[in-house]
Give the backbone structure.
Amino acid sequence: MIKNYLKTAWRFLLQNKLTSLISLTGLAIGVGCFLLLSTYIMNELRYDRFNDKADRIVRLVQHIKSTNNNEEIINAITPSAPVPVFKQALPEIADGARIFNYSGYKPATVQYSDKLFNERNILMADESFFKIFSFDFLEGNSLTAFNQINSVVISASTAKKYFGNDDPIGKILKVNNVNSMLITGVIKDVPAYSQIKFDLIGNYAMLSRSKTRKWDSANDYSYFLLKPGTKVKSAEQKINAYTDNLFKNDGDKDHRLQFTLEPLTRVHLYSKANDNLVPAGNIRDIYILSSVALILLLLACVNFLNLFSAKSIERAHEVGVRKVMGALRGQLFIQFLTEAAIITLCAIMTGTMLAWLIFPWFSNLIGHQLGFQTWDINVLVLLLIGIFVSVTLLAGTYPSLYLSAFKAIIILRGKSGGNAGNSTLRKSLVVFQFAVSVFFIIGTIVAAGQMDYIQHLDTGVNRSNVIVLDIGGASYNKIQALRTALIQQPDIKNVSASYDSPVNIAGGYTIDKAEGATGNLNMMVTGIPVERNFINTLGIKLIAGNDFTLGDEQRVLDTNYQKRVYSFILNESAVKSLGWKPNDAIGKQISMNGRQGEIRGVASDFNFASLHQKITPIAIFPEYDYFGKLLVKVSGKDMLNTTNGIERDWKSFFPDSPFDMHFLDQEYDELYQNDQRASDILIVFAFITIFLSCLGLFGLVIFSTRQRTREIGIRKVLGASITSILGIISWDFLRLVGLAIIISSPIAYYAMSKWLQGFVYRINMQWWVFVLAGSVAMLIAFITISFQSVKAAIANPVKSLRNE
Amino acid sequence: MLSLQHISKFYQAGGTRNFVINDISLEVEAGEFISIMGPSGSGKSTLLNIIGMLDEPSSGYHYFAGETVHQLKDKQRSALYKKFIGFVFQAYHLIDELTVYENIETPLIYQDFKSAERKAMVADMLDRFQIVGKKDLFPAQLSGGQQQLVGIARALIAGPKLLLADEPTGNLNSKQGEEIMQLFKKLNKEDGVTIIQVTHSEKNAEYGSRIINLLDGRIESSKQL
């Protein structure tokens, strides 16, 4: 019997190529998206679980409450003392390792013979690192990896990059021209789902601070391995008791350093700490994506359901005949469910293929390397079976029940299916589909608007045509020589240097004295040491006073800090916080972290961090001890020639460092990588949901026009024009889309408001966004409807009425 | 073999009952060949459907092959019907997605015949109706007469005692119609199949052994030929 079912089902699908294809496409896309998203979710959930001792590993984070606003800051970066001290003092702790992000601030240059690369993933870790974490050694082993003070363990792909097929063990890498590291091990590349990612990991003992146990400067990540059976909470209590005792003389208890422990497997999704080793995930995103995955699958099921029942009028005859032949309802139910199962099976195969094809692109979109290899094969198979069963039941049950319930007698009397089934259900499903689509359309428009706003907002820094070179650590003499050489080139307008990126200034300083201020001044400001042409190069506007001069430069060049005289340019906010009008501030004396000097100018407020943050007080001051970035303002004409010129000069001054330039705009865009990603993902979802919804609508229109063939025929005989018939059919559906827009708009408004609230500088959602989204949905729906409705409207009424 | 007593079928329309079948009693003996005639709306098809258990009467008693049909549950009725009755329709009602062979085979599937048995039975039937060469064609590839032939073959495949035919020649030209009627006559005479047919045509009606005339849901006249 099942063979017969399969045969009929297969033939029916082949004979109804269009609808079968629509069902199949919709479902395949649904399944494909579901697989992609669930792979991502799976990857997030399995973070760090590959470590054999994952359930016993914890990360130490520190909590600090600042005195001026009582806000608690949780930071993953901890001092060097806790690991050695706690390991020794607390019996609950079996082992511990500090990890320092060696290339965290700027890429390190690594050299082996003639091969020279900028490495961005170098860590330094304590000797017990490989005893706590489980990384697979291809050469060397976890016990002896760090038994040399200058040991380094590298990943397989790093080994390949430097040594090709040669054996890397025992080779020496020259790092930043100062450290010689001896390769003692090669591990398999670190899994993408590890919170500790590295290409090279050196022995922490190489760092000068490895001998010290400091509590007051935080640079390292601290991980502990707890003794078996130790509860995280109890270890945490022991630690707090220990530090309470240790710091008992250090003033106010509320503002002392506090530590908590985070279980390793919760760090990635649940940690609230700043400055994680790799950007943390967020459990909220996981919930959102899970819902999206389910909704997409559901949308596809809805299509299938709608199309399947749309076809039922044609199947009604078959049902009648089969019932006359003696078929029981149950048998017919099984037959139709078999059909649903066949389509679902094809869809799952196609969807899996689709996912497989899209994985590289998807990995790119979300910034994680994903694929079917992410899965445990058994889990994947179970998931696919689960999808198969649930989609078959979800999409197949209703139409099968509905179809198999047809009464033979009614059908065989020559009338069509008669009862159209539950059209309210079908209509609600279409409303649901379009509500989801409209939601994503609104989301897309709002996100695109915000991204456009970010791109075009005048942040007060002229970023265009500014080339950035990372020069971290180079001596000022060299930088100055390079600057002098560069400035000769006709297409280079100006050259300056700064401590960190002018679009993302992070230095924290405190102004503790200001002329005329009384009492205990303790004002937190952001600060950035710059070369004196900084303001000019970046086009920052001054509203009072003057730019820095050569004299200002010379007064801070003294190597004796005591003799230096500083000059400052503050922004409007800073001056305002100090209680001055811009013009009054000029010439006033201030002191900032021991730097004494005079306010030279006041800059109008500009954004020096991402637009997620408010503009706060900032102090710009010439100081030539360290520059991280060389900023080259170019004319923008003949870029190739200009950059070649820059490279030539770079090579002559820094022959040992690879030439690695980028634009300031790129650094700016990087600040919004996550937002851009969210925006991209929204666009993709908008397209997919619209497509799925249109497929569903298309199916329903086929259904409806078939049902109404007779009515349309009669109307035409009575003289209705084609346009009026188009109007009648379209109205029926556009009404549903309208309802979807009404339902969806407030939800989208709420969700996107939440998203926009993350930006201090943001667009307002205008009414036209909703009108536009609604119109887009309406238009797309109308076009979809037209495919069928035109056909129905121009059909010859004689034909449609002849069957009566 | 079948007995209807005081059978009525009506629809409630507002306060009044519209009778399609109004108190019909009818006895049919095995081996009869009955033609039911009457104008449109006289209740011919409804009567046939009630006899064939596709439709239920609003009131009255229905006995078939020793069973009290009006007291049976759906499933039992279906089982009874599968075993004894074959149906032929004016519009053939073949399944478009199935070949000639598969259409004829379908009733056997629902009666749980084994695959090998089915093969033999269908082969026999194809042979008997001389449509072996058409067994892999789909209904749309056949003429109306050929389709009706397949319809009859399908109705007969499970060896029914009673063949019900609702205007079996209504969609056919007179030559094709005549062939079908000859076939019915032969089935009735040689195989002893009881036949009840609804027809508009006096000529076709006369192939039968009894003609029943319906008017407004009642038996107006009945004559033995």
Residues 182 and 207 of chain B are 8 Å apart (CA to CA). The radius of gyration of chain B is 18 Å. Chain B has a mean pLDDT of 90. DSSP finds seven helices and ten strands in chain B.
